[in-house]
Design brief:
The protein is mainly β. Helices cover about 5% and strands about 40% of the residues.
Length: about 425
Amino acid sequence: MARSVYDSLGAYVTLPRPRPRPRLRLKHCLPALVGLGQLFAVFCALPHPMLPSGGTSGKAPRSVAGSQVQARWSEPPEPFDLKGRYTKRLYVSPGGRDSEGHGTEHRPFRTIRHALHAAEAGTKITVLPGRYAGIGSVRGLAGTAHRPISVAGTGRVVIDGRMRDIGLHLSAPHHVVIEGLTFKNTWPHGVSIDDGGVHGSPARFLVLRNVRFENIGTGGNNDCLKLSGVDDFWVLDSEFAGCNRGEGIDMVGCHKGVISRNLFRDIPGSAVQTKGGSRRILIHGNRFTDIGARAINAGGHTGRAYFRPLTSPFEASKIQMVANLFERTGDSPVVFAGCSSCVFAHNTVVYPKRFVVRVTEENLERGPGRNGTFVNNILVLKADAQCRRNVIDFTRLVRPDSFQFDNNLWVVSCEDYR
């Protein structure tokens, strides 16, 4: 029998029971390497990259392969809702009634949508276990910094769109928390949050925590979570699976976000995408397993009208990808696609199927990506044809001289990793 240890970054480490005079094989070392990679990310001298608010900043130079890596660092900001308080309570139950219910625990509403329309700053909506229809669109949902609006599931709460309806669309919200919900069989997206099309007035201060996405979309550009024009947001402790040909999280013109401790698995497209002028996003401590295309697409190709702001010089900038675990990715664990000053550090990559990293330009109307950093990663490759070809891909029109690749540990394995 083997015993499993679950570390704080979400990686399972399997340790075989000791035997007399064991024969050490690489397949016994691979799981430990994965775990050590995560511990390496936590305890190594290079801390988390800086986000725009919270923490104490300072300079942390590091000598790597004869060069100096200069960066500024601080801890990521805490979710804004940790200090929030609620002065109004509403309840939703599959057995409730919108027309005659009062939203109380004994006379709950039937639909989450009805409760959202009755909510005001400081309202906590408790959703009781059961299956609910797609919530639909809600505009202008507005809490405050100390009195947010929360939608929280208790037990197993499933929002089932039956492949006809979106799970939830929030237009121009701020100070809103969504947690403990499962979105399933929704179309075209699971959850979509945007600024209502008003550039310069983003949706702000949003937390998605312990949210699950299953079987989203019908094969088009259908995302589990679509964010357009959203600033100051957190996506935490959630699971993304079956985002059909879209992304797990697709960000267009989003800024100052934290994506942490999530599981992305069995997604035929890409898992996380930051484009359209997205800036200062921390992607930290996540697990990416069996992603068909790009696990993280730092940049991309966005139409002119969708950039936020419209004058953004790059598709993405200052995207920080730190201490993640990547297993059996399709195209590449990370693609720098017109990304400026982006960092991929302290990650563990196991058995990528094609490339380890790609650097490309896909939007020739914006500035070329530059000043990228790929350092302090553990990279485990199979001892097959992959080792006899280039696993780092620089396409034309990029500036490879401005990218830094240093201090990475490369491991070649003849064993299977399960």
